[in-house]
Amino acid sequence: MHICHLKSTSLPDVERAAKLIAKAQAQGLKVTTEAYPYGTGSTVISAGFFIDPDFAARTGTGYDAIEVVATHQRLTGKEELVAAREKDPSALVLWHFLDAENNDRHQKLLDISIMFPGGAIASDAMPWSNPDGSIYEGDEWPLGPDKTAHPRSSGTFTRFICQWARQRAVVDLPEAIAKCTLIPAQIVESCAPAFRRKGRLQVGCDADIVVFNFNTLTDRATFENMHLPAEGMHTVLVNGVEVIANSQLVETATPGRPIRRGDA
Q1: CB of 263 within 8 A of CB of 192?
Q2: pLDDT tens digit string along 181-217?
Q3: Does 54 fall in a domain?
Q4: Count of the separate structural domains present in the chain
């Protein structure tokens, strides 16, 4: 069993959930998990749990924690939520359920999920939206400031390495890299054998290689400017082809290939 987004599925119960997962693993159960280094989640406004009568009690947040991505509007209550759902049920929203920057307790909960032993750093990058809320399907680069999604679409891995490995030094660099590369590959390889060639620098593995400057690596995307790319990436190879060269995106490079369950 793989548990996605440990903190946003556990919320105030992150500590208890982490202990249960660790106990299950110690008993030999194959349970894995992941988290992304933000205290804000993203979903659609029609998500069922938002209209749960016990929403506030169960999640520890109010409706003012829900922000409509396209307008940056914070909701004021359940009535406004219901009206917004009826108008556009597919509208993307941000859900600010942990304020790690201003709340020590929230930072601890975020750390527990991010630093869970053997847990992966992962993000299901959210699609980019136009100002009217429709999905952006163009090829503009760099993205304009009118394009919105979630900062994790731009900065998940650079944010983790920058803040947890360099600035706070709560994880050493080899472990930080493993949580972003090797561990995710190991989680998936049991059902997709091709992932045994991923996340490793060794003979016979795929040439997916990242070269970065540890001293300057940083995420720049914020909730006000979600489109800003990270800094510090010097070279990125996918299947041996440069997709970032000399810190610049190679817009014509398309070497990525899908990996399917039966691929060896």
Answers
A1: yes
A2: 999 999 999 889 999 999 999 999 999 999 999 999 9
A3: yes
A4: 1
The torsion of the CA quartet 243, 245, 249, 252, rounded to 10 degrees, works out to: -50
* Contact by Cβ (8 Å): 235, 211: yes
Length of the chain: 264
45 in Cβ contact with 72 (< 8 Å)? no
Helix axes 14-26, 104-114, angle to 10 degrees: 20
Q: What are the pLDDT digits (tens) for 149-160?
A: 999 999 999 999
Residue 103 lies in a domain: no
In the chain, pLDDT over 90 holds for what percent of residues?
84
User: For 58, phi and psi rounded to 5 degrees?
Assistant: -75, -35
Residue 76 lies in a domain: yes
Residue appearing with tokens 């006000």: 224
Identify whether 87 is part of a domain. Answer: yes
Structural domain containing residue 52: 40-95
pLDDT for the residue 167: 97
Q: How far apart are CA 98 and CA 155, in angstroms?
A: 18
Q: Answer left, alpha or beta for residue 167, where phi above 0 means left and psi between -120 and 50 means alpha.
A: alpha
